[in-house]
Design brief:
It contains 28 helices and four strands. The chain is mainly α and 560 residues long.
């Protein structure tokens, strides 16, 4: 990675979204222990708790990890934003700090290289005495280098055992990384077996490892994909061992098809086509026999159908593949799309479009059409200069599936065709309004009509629809945010109404949401020139909520 930063505020806003970005601004002063290394940026952000954050720059962009609940769901959270902003504030020092990190790394390498054998052994033994996990990993490598296959198998399966990491029979997100690090050592040991001329043994142990991981994968929170990467490496190691071992192709086909028809392939996601070279002609013939027999016995089974499709692709039989798909068409049009894509890949675009159009016509109005099918057809209409046909498809899809997304798609298509005028917009909004029933409370089911009006920045019309009962709490909040500068009194009313239910609840997420709303209330009072009223309100609120210490700390942190 270079010494300069490859991201700016725009990238942080894109990754987090406008709301999380704005929240991150208020946490900038809460960033501490900021370290800018060669390949990663780490820091601590004080929120409801002290959260650990790590930002990493890749060739394809920036990624962020945070230990907060929202971050653990894989989101680029406000704490990540705060750290990114803190780094940008110190951009001038980044080259120097990264150069210093690189220098420390070189210094450590040089020091290690200068030690003699006895000193390095003493250092390793010192760490082995205090790190059981490291000791087990090195014991496995030693066994792999020897001739005790039983010991290697036992160690490999031990490394894949989730029980030491499962607190309640389940490996939680916070423990998944540590488990993944341990499991990756099993992959290293299997590679060592193959590299030392013991590929046949590596195949045997790898198959046992694939089965073991497949059985426990569903008991792991792999939100970051760490275990998925280990599983992929395990599958690749097995395939490499098969290539090196020159196994009997018929026996390999028997194991492979049996594994793929089983219920332990979710983790490694092995595909029949990956083994085409290993199977050879004889193995493929055997695989064909087994797969076709399984599919005929259960033609609607997802596993059997997927395996049959993979076989047809491997054999290069497009028409046979289409016949497999056509035997079980989805009412959403999704299968029509798959057939169209296969035909297009085979260089048969006219047939592809025919199947896609047929999918639009035949899809069940209550279930489809699949949005990807509509996209497929519209993209090909657009390529061939048929903008009016694109609009017609988008309008029909809106009538079937009334949502913000279908409204946006129609609006975009109509603008390209130069026919998005006020009557066209009114017609689209009427379609959304016809599908909307007033909501008498701030429940979980807001309307696409309010979403569309907000997306058009037509806040007055959105306010009218919301006050008629068509909005939920999320939409009211978005509406208040949109009108706050122009209609602060109305926005203030919404914020206060949303705050009310939160005052009877507890929990970190509740407190953070409450503080965000209070910041918005303060902004409204400042615009209205009624700061004294806000002070009186906060005094009463603090007195009423004084037993909630975490809430009080957050209020203090934000000057509320």
């Amino acid at each position: 990675m270079g010494t300069t930063l490859g991201f700016g505020e725009d990238e942080l806003r894109r990754l987090a979204g406008p709301r999380s970005f704005e929240r991150g601004l208020s946490y900038l002063s809460s960033v501490s222990a900021l370290e800018i290394g060669e390949s990663a940026i780490t820091a601590t952000v004080d929120g409801t708790d002290a959260y650990e954050v790590e930002l990493t720059e890749h060739e394809d962009g920036l990624t962020g990890w945070c230990s907060c609940p929202y971050g653990q769901e894989g989101n680029f959270c406000k704490h990540c934003v705060a750290v990114g902003l803190a780094v940008l504030r110190e951009a001038e020092s980044v080259p120097r700090r990264r150069a210093a990190a690189a220098s420390r790394g070189r210094q450590l390498d040089a020091w290690l290289e200068s030690r003699d054998r006895d000193e390095l052994l003493a250092l390793v033994r010192e760490h082995l005495a205090g790190d059981r996990a490291l000791r087990h990993r090195l014991e496995l490598r030693a066994a792999a280098a020897g001739s005790d296959l039983g010991a290697v198998r036992e160690r490999v399966l031990g490394l894949l055992d989730t029980r030491p990491f499962a607190r309640y029979g389940y490996v939680e997100y916070a423990d998944a990384r540590a488990y993944g690090l341990q499991a990756s050592e099993a992959v290293s040991a299997l590679r060592a077996l193959t590299d030392t001329g013991r590929a046949t043994e590596a195949v045997e142990v790898a198959r046992a490892a694939i089965t073991a991981l497949g059985r426990t994968y569903g008991e792991i929170d792999d939100s970051d994909g760490v275990i998925g990467e280990v599983a992929s490496a395990l599958a690749e190691t097995h395939l490499d061992a098969c290539r090196a071992a020159r196994l009997d192709p018929v026996q390999t086909a028997d194991w492979l098809v049996d594994h793929l028809l089983g219920d332990v392939n979710d983790a490694t996601d092995i595909a029949l086509s990956d083994y085409e070279e290993v199977l050879g002609e004889a193995g493929l013939v055997r695989a064909h026999e087994l797969v076709v027999a399984a599919w005929r016995a259960n033609p609607k089974g997802w596993t059997e159908k997927y395996l049959m499709e993979d076989l047809m692709r491997t054999e290069g039989s497009v028409d046979a593949l289409i016949a497999v798909h056509a035997a079980d068409l989805s009412p959403t049009g999704a299968t029509h799309l798959v057939i169209a894509q296969e035909l297009e890949r085979a260089g048969r675009p006219a047939e592809a479009l025919d199947w896609a159009q047929r999918g639009l016509r035949e899809s069940d109005p209550a279930l489809g059409p699949d949005s990807r099918l509509a996209d497929f057809v519209c993209e090909r209409y657009a390529r061939t200069g048929r903008p009016a046909d694109v609009v017609a498809v988008r309008r029909e899809v809106l009538l079937r599936r009334r949502s913000l997304t279908t409204y946006q798609d129609l609006r975009t298509a109509a603008r390209v065709a130069d026919c998005w005028d006020e009557p066209a917009r009114a017609h689209a909004l009427d379609a959304l309004r016809a599908d909307t029933r007033p909501r008498k409370s701030l429940g979980p089911s807001g309307s696409a009509l309010v979403d569309a009006l907000l997306d058009d920045a037509d806040h007055d019309a959105a306010w009218e629809a919301a006050t008629a009962g068509y909005a939920d709490g999320r939409q009211w909040l978005a509406l208040a945010d949109g009108i706050r500068d122009r209609r602060p009194a109305d926005a203030l009313t919404v914020y206060l109404r949303l705050i009310g239910p939160l005052l009877t609840r507890t929990g970190d997420a509740t407190y953070e949401h409450l503080v965000e709303l209070l910041l918005s209330v303060r902004a409204c009072h400042r615009t209205l020139g009624t700061e004294d009223a806000f002070t009186t309100y906060m005094t009463a609120l603090r007195n009423d909520q004084k037993r909630k210490r975490k809430l009080t700390a957050l209020l203090d942190q934000h000057g509320l």
